[in-house]
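Sample entry (193 residues):
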Amino acid sequence: EILNSATEHTGQSTFGVKQTCAYSAAYGSLLKMLFDTMIRRKNEPNVLGATLSTLDTLVSKSPTDCNETTLKFFDGVFNHLQATLKNMNSNVLDLVRNELQLMICVIQQRWMAACLQGSGNARCDTLVKTLLAILTNPKLGISEDAVVALGSIATRVNTHFIKYMDPVHQLIQSGFSGSSDVTLCIVDLVSDV
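Predicted structure, serialized as tokens:
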């Protein structure tokens, strides 16, 4: 928070977002160290909670000159998520949940819409396919975080999301018969779509 308030004002973007901050030069290193800590110490709830919270704050308050670094971080988390899903073991659900929470934080950034839109955008296609695979995997069950991530993508890509509607519609139908928490997430997904 102190670093974030030590802003070097180099102008404002059209949305009033900071262009750069005192920590911009070290931003990528901070993200990597925190993510590595999250992976190494995933069985320590206090450390994990603090790490996720700090990553969320860094991403949500990052200045515009960190967008490219944030996008690389997002791709790294997504690659790690895919590797985690391939190595199904007893700890996979918690790790998938943590990685999805980080991805949701990045997806919800306003500038991320441009990175996900476009008819030929492989990042969005791969991301949606992976989320749908998580949501339809009987070993994982419906992950609330994956539903939230899918809804966040829908709000960012607008009409580009139409091509995913058939599998999403099937997911929505099956989700209403789940637990109350899952049903609430599905209702939110319907609203986002």
